[in-house]
Every structure is written in structure tokens, then in C-alpha cells.
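Figure S4 source data
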Amino acid sequence: MTDALIIDTPEDQETPAWWRQAVVYQIYPRSFADANGDGLGDIPGILSRVDYLAELGIDAVWLSPFYPSALADGGYDVADYRDVDPRLGTLADFDAMVEALHERGIRVVVDIVPNHTSNLHVWFQEALAAGRGSAARDRYIFREGTGVDGSEPPTDWYSTFGGGAWERVEDGQWYYHHFAVEQPDLNWSNPEVREDFLETLRFWSDRGVDGFRIDVAHMLTKDLADPLPSQAELEAIPRDGNHPLFDRDDVHEVYAEWRKVFNSYDPPRTAVAEAWVDTPERRAKYASADGLGQAFNFDLLVADFDATEFRRLITVNLAEALVTGSSTTWVLSNHDVTRHATRYGLPPLAGRAVKQGTEWVAAGGPEDQLDREGGLRRARAATLLLLGLPGSTYLYQGEELGLHEVAAITSEQRQDPAFFRGGAFDGLGRDGCRVPLPWTADGSSFGFGSAGSHLPQPAWFAEYAVDGQALDSASTLAFYRRALALRHELQTDESLEWLETGRADVLRFVRPNGWQVVTNFGTEPFALDADAGSVLLSSGADAEASVPGETTVWIAPTD
């Protein structure tokens, strides 16, 4: 491992508030671009595509984990927090990528996974060797078992990925893992754990990283004082800041220390929390200026393409942003959910408590249930609506190509532990949104690399490839590029005013500079008033006097 290299951010990007209305593009490194032809995406692959990212018009990239990992959970089982997986490159490659992105005015956000390590992490290997009562074991959550000989787990708690949440080691003790068995949870009551993560934040900040996405930010601190509750009792405990495992108030003591590190840099480093909590009030704590500063709003990931639902969620989240002084975040797809082009091509959930798309994937992706064309049309409309909102927008790699979920992955080809163990991630796991991108319409892996890809790419990827879309002015890629360029030109203060449309299926709002956004969620055209202003961009068919069904338009300021 080399010494930290301090990389400056370009002068024209040195604004502490750059993140408030940024467009951030999520890269899943192992599936973005493969430079060495081993079937696995890598850092040099990202470096080879920096011009593509610049042409897209994004403000920042967020890299999912690229650290050394056995891939028990797609890289979220981290064996070393201050290095690059040798299959993905080197620290020198990482530095070159950061420099190239900064030269193009693109910020860099990296994933931090603080709740758990890999079972291959040096700390956990030390804990196994050190035995009961050791300082090494105190970095994790070890307990004696129950029953006469301790052969039963300490509790009946289950893992998110299915099965029990406790694993027995050779000397008879058990360790806790909320996720996969290869992901032992850290003990955040241990000062050594806290100090080590401060060092990790400094390490990457010194290398030029501009911000951090915090994985399961609501889960770090725990109260595991005896007697431990049963699973049934655990589920009955309200998540009001005092739950034994989730969204505890004392987790914000950790983030207050992190904020001191962030603010020691000029400009300050940013952070966004992945915090699955029960109320907007609880989420607001993570977005505090004294803490992480911003928190993901995942509400639209589980919402139908419905005007009433969109307006309610937009209103709630903008109100929350006012309370926290932060800016809200908008996201339609990521590495954990069915791609939104597919979700919107399936029958509405209509309030059913299941993640949209998981049932379709579990059924093998039957084509007669999916309206591909309609799903993409609604996805483009929803995206253009989000890009017109105040706050930051997070895009997931491949959505700019209009990619659908890949359902045709055999059991032998799947990698997600959620598939092998079952659990809360129902369906067949998350592999379908992590299939490597198609860069060219031909080749063994559609231009992803010189060989195959680590997850199978379907034949229909050819029609979505970058090289074809780059030449087509009507393509989804061309649409994203125009939208992001216009967004930079039109961006204004972080507020909006709703305008009445007279229709429950049409939303319309105006930003402070007069920029209007109109989304027709219905199927019948919506007539525009004669003095509305010129239509700058439409997510679908051309719109002049009226907005076609399932379409969003941007209207130029009239001042």
C-alpha cells in the first residue's frame, strides 16, 4: 500500500455546497467496464470511460465498493478499507481515475461500509485466533451460546439474507452478522473501531475523494446488554432511537466525529446516509449539518408511476429538507432494486407491500407481463420530472441507456447471497440490475471487455448499446445528455411552487426562475395554455400545444 497522495480539486469546483443540487452517477465498478479482459469491471475500465461520463453531463460519480473482497456480497464484504481489490486495479489506478475525473469537473464519492467487515479482514482473523475475552474479539460482537453446552445461538435472530444471524466459531463462541455469514458486525462501542474509521475517511479524503456514501448508516451502534430479546420481541420494539439494533440516537455521536474530519478539509468533504428509518423525522437526523449532511430518500423506489403518489412524496421530502437545512435526494434505481424501466412496465402495486419487480423476476421474467416500451416511456418521464426538482439526483449506471432488468440468469450464474440464502431481498436477488453494461452492439461482451462478463448479458442488450445510441438523436442516451446539459443552464434556487392543472393525473410546478415542469401520468394529452412558454425538452414525443400521455416536458422561463 502506498502513502496517501493529496489530490486537489479543480478551482472551479471548490464550492462547499456543490452537492446540494448535483447529479451523481452511481458506478458499480465490477459491471461498468473491464480493461484487462478478465470478465470483471475495474478501475482502469472506469478511467477508459471518463470522457463518456463527461459527455453525459454528470456532476459526480459514486463508486460502489472497489476494495479487496471475496465478493460474498458484491463487494460489501470489505477485507481492507484502505486499498483497491487487485482484481480491480491498484491505488495508483485509483489516483489516476480521480485526477482524470477532476480534470473534467466531476467529483468522486466512494462507498464506506462501516457496519461490518469481511470475515477475511485482518481484524476478524485476529479475533478467531485470539479467543474468548480478547481485545481482538471485542472489535466484533461475540457471545456465548445457549443450551447446556452452548451449542444453540445466543438468540433466534435471523439475518437479512436469510438463516440465523449468529455463526459459531471453532472454540464454541458465536458472532453476530446481520447480513451474510461472511460479514461479521463490528462493535461500535469499541474506541479502536471508531478511530480506525476516522483514519479511513482521512485516507481517501487525502487522495482527493470529495464525499462518502455511508452503507446502512442506521445500523452501527447497538445495545446488546443482557437479557437479549427474542426475534418476536425485537420486531415489536419501536424504532424511536432506543431500538437495540436499528436507528439508535447514539449513532449520531459517531457521525458528529466524522463531521469534524469532513470539515477539516477545504472544501469540506460531503456524505450521504443510506438510512432505512421509519419516519422523515428520524431520517432528518442523518442529514444534520453536524452529522452526515444528507440522507437518501428512497420513497420513489417503492412508488407506482402515479401522480398523487409522486406529489405526496415530493412534498414530504422537500418539507423535510427545509427542516434539516440539507437538500433532498431523488433516486429511481440503484444496485439493490429492479430497474425502474422494468418496474414501470409491470402492473401497479396498488398499495401491496412488496418491492415492485421482485415477483416478476422470481417468476423468470415472463415477457407477456412486461410492457417494455411503456416502461421505458414512463421511466423517461419520471426521470425528467426528478431532474427538474430541487435537490440532488442519483442516477444508476445503465439507466441512461434505458436498460431493463435482466431476469434470465440461471441458478448457476447467480452471485447474490440473497438468492442463495433467501431473506428480506425476495425474488431471485439483485443480480439482474448488476449485469455489465453494453458499450457496443457486438463483441463477446458488448464492449464491456475483450472477453466475457461475470454476469450473463442477454442478446437484447445489443439494441441498447452505447455506440448505437450515441448516433441516434432520439435515443435514451441522447435524451439524458440533453436533459443534464439543460439542467445546468436552468438550475435555480431550491424551491418550487405547485401549479393547478385541473387533472389528478397531471403534475405541474414552477421553479423560482420561471422554469416549469409538467408531467402527464395519464394517457390522454394535456393541453398547455397559449402563454406557457416554449417547450425546451420532452421525455417522449414532441410537445407544443399539449403534453402527450406518460410524458414530461420542461418549459422555458418566460421572463
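Figure S5 source data
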Amino acid sequence: MTTHWWRHAAIYQIYVRSFADGDGDGTGDLAGVRSRLPYLRELGVDALWFNPWYTSPMADGGYDVADYRDIDPLFGTLAEAERLITEAHEHGLRVLIDLVPNHCSDQHIWFRDALAAGPGSAERERFWFVPGRGEGGELPPNDWTSYFGGSAWTRVTEADGSAGPWYLHMFAPEQPDLNWEHPEVRAEFEDVLRFWLDRGVDGFRIDVAHGLAKKPGLPDVGPDPDVTDLPYQDCDAVHDIYRSWRKILDSYEGDRTFVGEVWLPTPEQSARYLRPDELHSAFNFDFLCCAWDADALRRVIEETFAGHAPVGAPPTWVLSNHDTIRHVTRYGREDTSFDMGDKRLLDPSDLVLGRRRARAAALLTLSLPGGVYVYQGDELGLPEVQDLPDELLQDPTFVRSGGSDRGRDGCRVPMPWSGSGASLGFSPETSGAAPWLPQPAAWSGLSVASQHDDPESFLSLYRSALALRRDRLTGLPESLAWVDAGPGTVCFDRQDGFRCLLNASATAVPLPEGAQVLLASGPLPDGTVPPDTAVWLHL
């Protein structure tokens, strides 16, 4: 019986703007990605997930899409994207692309037409244009707040200068929410799916997968909301959308897949998206947010398997992404957990400790049954950049929060490829271009070139772990057996004599007698596993 590739794949996330610059303008692009495909093949991942590369004004880093069927000139052309998909396949790498269906850009032709068409028009029915409350409609239609801060509503000024209705945007005002009750919205995105499937993509990551449908009547949240029953997320109607999408995906040859960005408060809610006729997998944010604590890590792993078992979906494991604080920095802080609502971006961090824990976390993550995601730079041990000048910050959350939330730019700083030059090899050295966000000088020692031939480097650890994962773990049953290795440890066996042992305690623990060390995240003196170290064993 053939196992679906996505059930065990290692998928590498590419934030195109910050991965590699091929044309020398200081911004990453598709030419840069194509030039680095051999690096990604050597790293040992199975697939690539691209953050949005569509035509966009970049009000939210490309998540404000103006044209879902074309590539932004910042990154290249549609023809170049087609070549990239082909070349990735030739390197044995599958391709997933981001789909942003909850909202589009205010520069999308639909929204421009809606504004021009005026009140009561058919064009406005594709969005949520709603009269305001108050005597003159001067108050927002309800009390919803944007994920980026402030009201989720912006009032329209009509062509004649009069104040019009309000439109909904759960993110920035430049990102109007689409009305998924409208049949033209559904038909449009079904066509967008086919457009990219016809060009060979192997699947889609669905942005804000839980948010497309809204509760009828758009009721207030209220002063004491039930977080499991919010009117703008996880509404029942969303599941019918994914059932229709699944039929489209399954009609294509090849093993195509959906992964959802599903941020919900309970495992039971998330599991509903993974029923056999909906999405194939979803990101495991509980694992990403978990503190560096053995009991907490084991509890999240157990709850993940328990939540996925009823629907038969594989779990996924992820430590960082383009929206969160890089885990090297998180693991070096006093509070090692992560909360999207309170990111504590400026908390101090012991990066030596953070790197040691991040190396151990890599082995834990890559040894677990299911799929795993690696955010670009994880394999280099890159930390969060916490001291970007205010005038260079581009994340809309910085402005919307009045500067209290510095946003996500610190995890999006361009990759260092070499140890020298104006951009550390991110751009061609002959261009002399500075990257769109500045890299710390210390990153010269973390570059790909600096780590490539060092057997003790982060990069070497990832290469070795990904190779061993593919050789020894792919194809094993999606289960594990817990082992008691002492307080403060996470230890489990998989079949064929494989064991992972992570020591998150403050004291060393002994290696099992007679065990063969396959790979360790750090030195193992005197036959012990030191604190904040993980080891793979063959028994």
C-alpha cells in the first residue's frame, strides 16, 4: 500500500521576499529561488511552500492579493513561476502555494468596481458592505475588532463625497473580507484552484482557513465572548467550501494536498477541518506555542494524536513561521511559550541557551510521526531580529497598534548565504544592493557558507536529521510508544528500534545501556544526555 507523501513530508517554507535575490534589487524573487534549488535538494526536504507570490500592493507582505492568477513583478513573471514549478519537480521537490481566500486587496478589480458602482450595487454584494449604526450611520455595524488592531470596519466615502456604508476587514483596511455566501466568490476561487493545479502545483496552504464564513446577521461579539463560538470564525458553512474544493483537488492526477492555517481554541474544532472529505492536514499551533517544558511538550503531543485519530489525519509539527517569533529567541527567554496575542517581542533572550534548545527541538520535531514544516533559516539557527529601526518596519500591525506591537518583520529578515558582502550573499555581490530589511552583522557567522562544511553546525544537524528521517522513519507506522526516561524528559520509541530522547531537565540523564547513537543535538559526555539536548538512538 502506497503512503501519501504529505503524511510524512518535510516541507520547507519560503518567504520569497527574503529567501534569495536573483536580479540584484535587494528583494527576493523567483530567480533567486530557482538558483537555490540545489541547496534545498541537498538539505533533504520533500516539498516547498511558497508564501503569496501574486500581484499585490504589499500592504501586508503579499497577503493582500490584487490578482490571484499572476505573479507580482517584484518577484518575476507567471512564465518564471511555471519554470520554477517544473524545475522544482526535476529536483524531486513538490510545490505548495499559499491561497488567500478570506480577503483580497483593496486594489483587486472586484473591490475597485464595488467602490465605483455605489450603494446597493451587485458588485458590492461580493464583500461585506453594511450600513453603520447610530443616527447617521456613524458607528461601525458591530463590535468586531481587526486581528491587526482597531475596528474591523472602515467607512466608505462615496464618489459624491457623502459618507457611505462600512466594509468588513478582519485584517488591514487594505484587505476587504470576501462574502463567501455569494456564488460568484465560490466560483472564482474554484477557478483559481484549477488555474494553479493546471500549472502543476502539488497543493495549497490555505490562509485563515477557519475564517471564510461569518455567522448570519454579523452579531456582536459582546463584552464576555465565548472563544469557541465567535461569529467571524469556525462557522459551519466553511466546511461545505472545503468539501467542494476537495472534489476539485481529487479530480487531478497526482497526490495533491491541502494544509490549513487553522487557529482555533480546541482540538475538536480543528479536527473537523480534517475529515476525509475536507483538508488533508493543518498546522499544529499548539506545538509551536508550547513552552520548553517536558510535561507540556508531551501533553501537546498526546493531545495532537488524540485529536487527529478520529478523523484519520496525520499530525504536523512546526516550530516557527513567518508570523511568529523565531524559536531560537523564544527558547532563550524566561517565558519560552508563545502567544500570538502577546508576542513579547522585546523580551531579552539568552541566544546561547536558545540555540542549544532549538537544536534539541529540531531532533524532537523531525522524529515525530506525521509531517513537519521548516521555516527558512530554521536550519541555520537564525534568531529573531529585535532591533530593526522603527522607520524600516513594514508590518501593518506596527502602525495599527500604535507601535505597541512591533509586528512580524523580525522573523522575515533576508537569509544570509555568504559571510561577507552588502547583503551576505542574499543579492548578487556585483549588485551591491542592500537587502529590503537589514541583516545583523553577526549573521555572517550563521550564513550557509559559514556552516556548510562544519559538521557541528546547525545546517549539518538539519541535513543529517532529514536524511536519517527519510531513511529510517518514512514508512513507519504513525504511532509511538512512550518511555519513562526520568523527570524532565520526553522519550519515545518508534518501530525498528528507533528511540528519541530529549532532556529538558536541569541535570544529565544516562543513555540506555547498549544503545547506538544515531544523531545528537550536542556532545554526550560520559554516556549521558546533558540538559537541553536530544539524541536519536538505535536499540
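The chain has a mean pLDDT of 96. The radius of gyration is 23 Å.
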